[in-house]
Fold:
Amino acid sequence: MFRKRKKNTSTRIEVREVLRGCEAGRLQSVGYMQVIPLVSDLNDDRFVSPVQCDAAVYTTSYGTLGFRNTSDSVMIVPCHAGYVVKQHAQDHAMAHAGVVDAAGDRRYDTAACIQASQGGFIKKGSYRMLILPHALREHALQKRGEKNYQKLWDDISVFNQRFGVNGQGHLEYFLKAFKKELDEFVAEFECVPRQVGAIVLVDDRVVGIERAPSHAYWQSIWPSLIRECYGSLAIEAAKANGDRAPDRSPRVQLPVEIASLDELESLITEIASQEDERARSTVRDLLDEPLDLQYEEAVSDRRVGANVSIDTATSQHFTGQVIRDGDKIVYASLPATSAFVKSQEWTRAKPFAI
Structure:
């Protein structure tokens, strides 16, 4: 059983510590979104996601979201996990990450309703997990300690308006309006072998850093991250540019005529390499950035040898949460702040190799 330990501490690390033990994979690029996979031989199967263990999810009151861990591993509920259900019940999302002990059951009364003016509680069962759209995650984290089920309704309303979607406080209206586009992101970006995380860019700007404890965990949450969270941001970028294709003009001088397939293949490889390097260069300056970690809680499970702490991480450019087992970071979700997403600071980078 987990034992909560009270303390009030803060510490500071650099962004590179979140990526320790990882290597950068080959860039994947589709439209306005780019993904640099993080691959690693570190694979900690003591931790599972709600998707992996087919967790039973339920609500007992408005603003209280419960999880039943059916596995013999510790369950890490991803930061801002949410559930939109078909039954007559109000959809809910977490305002932070969560940890549930092996074969345990835990309720969070700081959850948020994401479907205004809809009554009913979610019956205990297995449902598809989403992760809140990027634009809502910063608001949710800022209100993580509030016990107010309506706390995201105004933010959802503003979010919907930006996409031309009606529905005050109803996230499901956005999801229905852009279902086709969101589904396409899942099909276009695939996990690579040994992948445990990703650095996500939209329109050549770093918009998030994500890390999981294992390859299996990552595979289970990646569809939710790429679909609702970062996919929504890519859709917004396309709308802001009038659906104009992103300008990633290659520096390679294309010949008037291509003499052979070998020459064509060589040119394509060179263009891809340049795009990969351009994306990596936007990351380099961020690696030294300090992250302030504010302690939230610490819990332990002797049966699986886990002793984890949850910290809220803030910096000039990111805000999210980190989960550590001792000194080792096993989970991190660091969406970029809205101010950073809109800024041009990502264009300045100092030399560093990744």
Observations:
- The chain is about 25% helix and 30% strand.
